[in-house]
Amino acid sequence: MQIAGIIGASGFMGSHVAKRFLSDGFRVRGSTTNLADETKHAHLSSLQNSENLQLRELDCRDLDATLEFVQGLDIVIHCGTPFQLDFEDPETELLEPTIRGTTNVLRAVNEEESVSSVVIVASVGAYNTAFPMPIPGSPEDRVFTEQDEPYYSATDHPYGQAKYHADQAVRRFVAEDSRSGLDIVSVYPVAAMGASLSDREDSTSSGLQFLFKNRIAPNPFIEMLYEVDAEFAVVDVRDVAEGIFQAAVRPGLHGRRYYLSSESWSVSDISRMLNGEAPVRSPRVVYSNAAAQRDLGLTFRPASQAFDAYRRSAADTA
Prior knowledge:
- The protein is of the alpha/beta class.
- The protein has one domain (3-193, 234-262, 285-301): Rossmann fold (3-Layer(aba) Sandwich), CATH 3.40.50.720.
- It is 39% helix and 15% strand.
- The chain has ten helices and ten strands.
- The protein has helices spanning 12-23, 63-70, 90-111, 158-176, 204-214, 220-228, 237-249, 267-274, 290-296, 303-317; strands spanning 3-7, 27-32, 53-57, 75-78, 117-121, 183-189, 191-193, 231-236, 257-260, 263-266.
- It has a seven-stranded parallel β-sheet with strand order 3-2-1-4-5-6-9, with helices on both faces. Strands 7-8-10 form a three-stranded mixed β-sheet.
- β4, α3 and β5 (117-121) form a beta-alpha-beta unit.
- α1 crosses α7 and α5 crosses α8 (267-274).
- It is globular.
């Protein structure tokens, strides 16, 4: 039985990834930032085959702890970087844990000979720090692919900046430093939507869906999205988990990069669908999912299925 290490297993996305690996018969070593706080990870115990799940506390800024975490693993999934829109200190809350944490994971897996496959869960923000807004100066009908040069601006949200710098570190590592026998694949989800597997109240992904559903603008960033009726690229979190799983278990993908993206909708239509109403406009694909379909065998759900899943889960917990 192979062992998959999932850094960030208790988060919105990481929980779905843990579920996918457990369902396929893997043993899973998951990480959480606070093992003593059971509200952050208690939901994992209800997953199928949860007897094959072991949780450890981990902060990837600690290299020694990261080295210890990856010992004996066959596969490592790094989805443990912070995703938050509100912050007080971008350096300590976003930039350092994302960039330093990612470089520590790369160093650790390079030293641990048992690890044969690594998936770095980046973000569309690594390609476009202005996301969800379009890259300035790009044509309205442009479809972006993994071959495009990433766009970076120091005036964009620190979350996108952090993801950009971490991704650049991964690219350099793959080109210059990774050892033989280690496959490193990067995936770039757009905004992951759908049902949470937990009742946690600190999930940014669930929080965004709540805000869009109820047309709440708690900060200038969200208010701007409503004002311009921004086009928002979304993907079902279940498809993200499947993409990560396939990127990890399929051989010969070293150095590949994959957008995980379904449809792009206006925020107003996202709000309508989250309220069970029909959208007014039609969607389009802004970030191409062709490579993920071809190499990872993915079929992406329409965004409406993610919003329906969120609505059902919200009703169940109401």
